[in-house]
Each structure stands twice: as structure tokens, then as C-alpha cells.
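Table S2 (text version). Query chain:
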Amino acid sequence: MNILKILDKLSHDKFFTTEASRLETITNISLFGKKTAVAAVPLGLGALMTTPAKAETVNTQKTTGMVLKSTLTDALQLALVLEYLEDEYYAKGLSTSGLIPNTDRPVFMQISKHESAHVSFLKSTLTSLGVTPGNKPTFDFTANGNFSPFTDYNQFLILSQAFEDTEVRAYKGQAGNVMSNKVVLQAALQIHSVEARHASQVRRMRANKGWIELADGGNMPSATNPVYAGEDNVNQAGYNTGNAFGAAAGSAAYDEILTGSDAQTIASLFIV
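Corresponding C-alpha cell output:
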């Protein structure tokens, strides 16, 4: 079983009620890392099989390959920061005695396992591409005293929703930047679907709809507004969904992306 199959398993709703072997996950992540390295080889392989007459073309291909690789790895580094954030957040929440009600702990235990698997995958993939994974930042989940997520369960849920909704939009925003490696693209899309399930689950735990309408996160403090900025867009490829279905339904039918800079800005609020 490779990492793609593992992530597919993680994305299945039934996984929330079953246990996953962390050893199996890490072992297969390592195996996938080797496969990713092989998949990345074609970016530079042409230079070894080219005649002098094709030198100019090869130089262009090599330059393009380096740009593609840089774009790819930059996107993976951004994803790693976001996964570091969630991984530590849930681990700390679960380790805080009395914070999470017993009825909700199974959900966050599984979400925590998913985030740990995503961190391991991204680190392994970056290493296989010849890039050193970024170090985990030092996080301040109070955002300089604006939140108290580990003493107030309601605030823990608020930040959980904000983090999950941010990550869903951020992964979509980076899709074009990982298209140069189809293996990584497929895995990123699988992670994206898992994060979307997390977001929907947490939103419902807060008595919200499982989807976003307009730029309204649903009973969220104004400090989280950047997470939902732009979600009220109703124009998709020249088609006005608001005219056809109404603004709320039209906007909800198409989730919007977050740019890399916007995602970084949001994450930086919680980085010391």
C-alpha cells in the first residue's frame, strides 16, 4: 500500500471510526518518497540523452525544469507550514486535560492522525526532490492574546474551523503550482479532500452548515474574516451563478482559492 492509497483511506468517512497504524503510514510514506524522486527525474533526464545540435533546446528545457521544480517545492513548503500548524494545534488540544469533551475526542484524534500523516508526507516528498523541508515554526495559537483556544473549547472549535477552511482554500490555490509532477498533484488533491472533510465536520460541530455561503464563516469572530474573504464571488468562468441560483447558493456552489501570499498572511498571525 503506497501513500496515495493511505491518503485515500484517510479520506474515507469510515476512517473516523477506525484505527490506523502509524508505523504502516510512515513506512509507506518513505516508500512513496522514493517513487516521487523517480517521478521527478524526467525534469533533467533529457540532458543525458541529447546531441550537441539540440543544446540550445536542452538549456531552455533545463531552465524551465528548474523553474517548475522551484514552483513545485515552494508550494509544498507552504503546505508544510500549514500542516505543521494544524498538527501541533490538535496535538496540543488533545493533550490539554479537560478541554475536549469525551464525545468529541474521537473526531479530533483522527483528524490529528491525518495531519501527522500529511506532515510526514510533505517532508518526505520535499527531501526526495532534493530540497530540505522547512523547520517547524514556533506557534502562538493565542495570536498575541486574541484567542484562548486551550482554556475555552468554543474558541478551540473556532480556530479549528478557521484553520481547516484556510487549508482547503490554500491547497486549491496551489494546484497549478504542483501540476509539473502528476504524482504530487494527485496526492495534493487527496489531501485537499481530507481537509475539506475536516472543515465540514468541524463546521457542523459548531452548528454551522457544512459549506460556506457568501463570505460568511458562520458564527465566526471578525478576526477570522480574512479566511473567508472572496468567498462571495458568484462569477465562474463568465457564468454568473448568483443570477441563476441566488447569491448565497451561487457562491456556495463554488469554493474559492486562497493565494499563497494570503495563506501565508493568515498563518503568520499564529507564528512567533
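Notes on Table S2: The mean pLDDT is 81. The chain has eleven helices and two strands.
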